[in-house]
Amino acid sequence: MARLVVGLGNPGSEYANTRHNAGFMVVDLLAENLRVSYWRDEAGASVGLVRFGDDDLVLAKPQTFMNLSGKAIRKLAEAYGVPVSEVIVIHDDLDLPEETVRIKRGGGHGGHNGLRSVNEQIGQDYVRVRLGIGRPPGRQDPADYVLEPMRKDAAERLEAVVPTGAQAVLHVLEYGVDRAMQEYNGA
After folding, report:
1. Which of 20, 91, 112, 171 is labelled catalytic?
2. Which of 71, 76, 83 is nearest to 60 (CA)?
3. Four-CA torsion 73, 78, 81, 83, nearest 10 degrees
4. Positions of the chain with pLDDT under 70
5. CA–CA gap between residue 42 and residue 52 (Å, rounded)
């Protein structure tokens, strides 16, 4: 069976150090830890393939920009025969405090344009690994907040939570979403 793990983000060096690329950061760490040796362009995404237990694991970073991520995810799910319930999407979340990781299945997009695109393309029954980035200070526009280059302290806080996000994904893959939610979401 194939499983699909997708990190949401924006392609290009100008977005590399932004909060909106938290999903890309987790997928990069997973790829490093699982020894993905080759990335290819497929279905509008950068894709790395690896065996994980008995499953083929498809790691993906859509290159279509955040607002169109769902198209690449739909194409990859179809190409690899992955049911929506076996898709894991990793993304930044304004509604969670910094350095927080939470897991959930389904739900609305909460104003997140990447999730809006995913929901439009494949529905809502996928697993989400949410990395908290906190709310913008004062009256700063959330769009500016997620896309601005981070200062050193903010970047360090996000980098510190990326390994937890990667562990959460592996927990979902190994033990299922219910056990992973118990482990990462608290009592």
Report:
1. 20
2. 76
3. 60
4. 187
5. 20
